[in-house]
Amino acid sequence: MESALTARDRVGVQDFVLLENFTSEAAFIENLRKRFKENLIYTYIGSVLVSVNPYKDLEIYTKNHMERYRGVNFYEVSPHIYAVADNSYRSMRTERKDQCILISGESGAGKTEASKKILQYYAVTCPASEQVQTVKDRLLQSNPVLEAFGNAKTLRNDNSSRFGKYMDIQFDFKGAPVGGHIINYLLEKSRVVHQNHGERNFHIFYQMMEGGEEDLLRRLGLERNPQQYQYLVKGNCPKVSSINDRSDWKVVRKALTVIGFNEDEELLNIIASVLHLGNVQYGGEDGIACITSDTQIKYLARLLAVNGSVLTEALTHKKIIAKGEELVSPLNLEQASSARDALSKAVYGRTFTWLVNKINASLAYTDDSYKNYSVIGLLDIYGFEVFQNNSFEQFCINYCNEKLQQLFIELTLKSEQDEYEAEGITWEPVQYFNNKIICDLVEEKFKGIISILDEECLRPGDASDLTFLEKLEDIVGGHPHFITHKLADGKTRKVMGREEFRLLHYAGEVNYNINGFLDKNNDLLFRNLKEVMCMSENKILRQCFDREELSDKKRPETAATQFKASLAKLMEILMSKEPSYVRCIKPNDSKQAARFDEVLIRHQVKYLGLMENLRVRRAGFAYRRRYEVFLQRYKSLCPDTWPNWQGKLSDGVSTLVKHLGYKPEEYKLGRSKIFIRFPKTLFATEDALETRKHSLGETDYLTFIFPQNWAFLLSFSITMQACWRGVLARRRAQRRRQAVDTVRRFIKGFIYRHKERCPENEYFLDYVRYSFLMNLHRNLPKNVLDKSWPTPPAALAEASEHLRTLCMQNMVWSYCKKISPEWKHQLEQKMVASEMFKDKKDNYPQSVPKLFVSTRLSKINPIKALKGYKARPRQLLLTGSSAIVTEEGKLKQRIDYAALKGVSVSSLSDGLFVLHVPSDDNKQKGDVVLQSDHVIETLTKLAICGDKVNVININQGSITFTAAQGKEGIIDFTPGSELLVAKAKNGHLSVVSLNNLLFTLASV
Ligand SMILES: Nc1ncnc2c1ncn2[C@@H]1O[C@H](COP(=O)(O)OP(=O)(O)O)[C@@H](O)[C@H]1O
Ligand SMILES: [Mg+2]
């Protein structure tokens, strides 16, 4: 759209929101006209696409066009049905939200064509595999089949859909169409038995007649002449120049094969039987009907696979069950004809529904492994209808349009409100006509027109169309949207029949003729006709007429109630999806190209609610764009933003619009978008851009080098940019696809993780191993004391153990390598201490963290001798050959290591130790009892120096020693709460050793 803003005078605006006078219907229509003249049939109202039927083939639906719209931003290209299709598709893929495209408009406006274009767009542009191709073919081929059976030539459209259609296209996670589902609404069955002048029955009858092979027609008992069949001559126009029934027949037959249809014979039998039914003639005396010729019955019996005489009886009698008894009464001529017609309608109508189910079965997405799919729904449903004579069908159709209009207004308003809220801009309430009041008038329980109609249909007694009208007058007579001849003022009375009621729809007034309302709503088939059909051997009819129906005492729901329920369901479906709208307009009633009938168009603009739509969209701001788009386009207009703005985008836009002189009331800045209130502001900016373009350096430069071609180069560079964006988008899409693939493989692997290695789980198992090793790599133990180790998966348990050992060895090796000689010496001593005392002496653990030193000689003497059980400070010197006890430098005792018999300590946490010397050594003064603050250290050094590791005795209880002169002494050790060394009454030295492990030298 941006590129075409400048072309606005010649071809109008591409978006009606840019109309300066947006409330003027004339301006709206003038814009449509300008564009239509230039074959620009598409225009937006915001995101709603308005499409005018060109009634000629335009070269705008080629593969190249599809490519142009694929993956491109909605507003960057001119309006097109493909832009809507692509936008929905991308929203579905990126936001994972189901979408629906609502196509509306009156008969002949181009709805069905639009829905076909969308389907073709997806068929060509979506990713495909062989399996997907089959689905695509079936989706496309479902159209000719449904059109043959559900479309007909009417005065308005040579290929008018006589049923409503909602089609879901299902897409898998790769965005490929993988299935579909169709819901059909209210087929106009009355067309089977009657057509207005200039109209035809459903296409399939004429196609069969024209295209059917001789053999086939013979078998079906048909002549190749539509004039011969009562059901085909009512409209008196079996041939239509724009329709080629013969080639259409071939298309339909081929489509049936693609869909995987194998009940052709039964289906054609049913079609033929309807034609034969139409030719069943009645005669009879005394008003009692009988069938005058039995040729038809013969064919019917064969084609419907029923008993001929039972059928004859059923076509001429009526069976009622009253109070459990069967009452059979003959029919008069009129009743018999309508019974026959009711049978034709029922057979055709049910076969049509069966056909839709059949197509659905062929489109069903059957891959259970991945049930999660996204959906784009296409709604192609009858538009608002106003004829000279409007009946029950128009009543239903227009009610349907009221409902859709309500949904449309609600959702459009809601999406506007949502956008304002998301952008943080205050919502300004919009006045609009809420047509809920009309919907209620039709559908409200007990008080609505449908309820009143049902009541008249169901009540016993002499209910008729006229009593229905009276009831309406009684109950809804005062409603502002309801009038009848009786209730109307004089002026209106002149244009209303006595058998009519008028509804003031949102789109205009419609008079409905009440004749036939009750019958059409009842849609009843006499019981005996139902019984015959239930006995049919025809495969299709057996499914259409279920025997259970006969035993079901409940009255079937009326046509209007069924329709109301199906519409309610449709609204639910549509509400659950994100909608896009295509509003189709028919330019003239004569199906002519290039004729723009203003009156007709104004009428449609009105009843499609387009002005209302525009008002809602324009209520606040005409134009809104993301900051980056706006800045990119207009940055050259401000020196601060040209050539590039480095700061925040919103600041850039703010700087730019201030430089352009926007007044505060003309715009607002949202969170990510700029909102411009009036189109004129935007156009002024556009004009400034045009002027600026010519003075831009880039242009000058290009002009200088390529005098004629700078414009081409500019457009070339834009194309290149678009291509590059396309490349980037495709790369992103590929990355996303890969991610999804990985996740799927992972989930599958997880499910199969306990199985033997197989293709399903190998990815997962490898990943688990890889992730364990990477985790290990990040969390290896920091040192030899760190015992942490990640838990390995079962398959790696053994390897993990090996790695753990290796890791430990490695840590030890590198630790050893870094060790200094002093530290080594320290550790060697600690090792000896450990060997001697670990788990043997209580105060060993306290010694572990304390470093051993080479001397502890200082003022605070840690060694004491217990001579005569009294503590006296001493020093213990350890030389290479002996241990020497001194008192402040005075030698007290020397013990050669060679003479050292043993060393005794207790197992408790005291510091006492006894050096045993031989008792016969006169040089010695007996065993030495010493006490040390560092007993472990002292004894370790002693053991190392004297190589006496093995002579250390650790005693429990007591130590016996030999004192001077061969006297024997005993030291008793007992655990206690406090260190106490004292002479006991028994003459022993008693040592109460601390229980706790804090060893200090208590005073002796
Ligand atoms: N985009 C289009 N281009 C060309 N012709 C079109 C286009 N849309 C509709 N027509 C013509 O108008 C006819 C009626 O369109 P159709 O889609 O059947 O109307 P609707 O479904 O609204 O009743 C089509 O048969 C076709 O000839
Ligand atoms: Mg149609």
From TrEMBL:
<keyword id="KW-0472">Membrane</keyword>
<keyword id="KW-0677">Repeat</keyword>
<dbReference type="GO" id="GO:0005886">
    <property type="term" value="C:plasma membrane"/>
</dbReference>
<dbReference type="GO" id="GO:0005524">
    <property type="term" value="F:ATP binding"/>
</dbReference>
<dbReference type="InterPro" id="IPR036072">
    <property type="entry name" value="MYSc_Myo1"/>
</dbReference>
<dbReference type="GO" id="GO:0006897">
    <property type="term" value="P:endocytosis"/>
</dbReference>
<feature type="domain" description="TH1">
    <location>
        <begin position="810"/>
        <end position="995"/>
    </location>
</feature>
<keyword id="KW-0505">Motor protein</keyword>
<dbReference type="GO" id="GO:0005902">
    <property type="term" value="C:microvillus"/>
</dbReference>
<keyword id="KW-0518">Myosin</keyword>
<dbReference type="GO" id="GO:0051015">
    <property type="term" value="F:actin filament binding"/>
</dbReference>
<dbReference type="GO" id="GO:0000146">
    <property type="term" value="F:microfilament motor activity"/>
</dbReference>
<keyword id="KW-0963">Cytoplasm</keyword>
<dbReference type="InterPro" id="IPR010926">
    <property type="entry name" value="Myosin_TH1"/>
</dbReference>
<dbReference type="Pfam" id="PF06017">
    <property type="entry name" value="Myosin_TH1"/>
</dbReference>
<dbReference type="GO" id="GO:0005938">
    <property type="term" value="C:cell cortex"/>
</dbReference>
<keyword id="KW-0966">Cell projection</keyword>
<dbReference type="Pfam" id="PF00063">
    <property type="entry name" value="Myosin_head"/>
</dbReference>
<keyword id="KW-1003">Cell membrane</keyword>
<dbReference type="InterPro" id="IPR001609">
    <property type="entry name" value="Myosin_head_motor_dom-like"/>
</dbReference>
<feature type="domain" description="Myosin motor">
    <location>
        <begin position="12"/>
        <end position="690"/>
    </location>
</feature>
<keyword id="KW-0009">Actin-binding</keyword>
<keyword id="KW-0547">Nucleotide-binding</keyword>
<protein>
    <recommendedName>
        <fullName>Myosin Ic, paralog b</fullName>
    </recommendedName>
</protein>
<comment type="similarity">
    <text>Belongs to the TRAFAC class myosin-kinesin ATPase superfamily. Myosin family.</text>
</comment>
<dbReference type="InterPro" id="IPR036961">
    <property type="entry name" value="Kinesin_motor_dom_sf"/>
</dbReference>
<keyword id="KW-0067">ATP-binding</keyword>
<dbReference type="InterPro" id="IPR027417">
    <property type="entry name" value="P-loop_NTPase"/>
</dbReference>
<feature type="region of interest" description="Actin-binding">
    <location>
        <begin position="567"/>
        <end position="589"/>
    </location>
</feature>
<keyword id="KW-0488">Methylation</keyword>
<dbReference type="GO" id="GO:0030048">
    <property type="term" value="P:actin filament-based movement"/>
</dbReference>
<feature type="binding site">
    <location>
        <begin position="105"/>
        <end position="112"/>
    </location>
    <ligand>
        <name>ATP</name>
    </ligand>
</feature>
<dbReference type="GO" id="GO:0007015">
    <property type="term" value="P:actin filament organization"/>
</dbReference>
<dbReference type="GO" id="GO:0016459">
    <property type="term" value="C:myosin complex"/>
</dbReference>
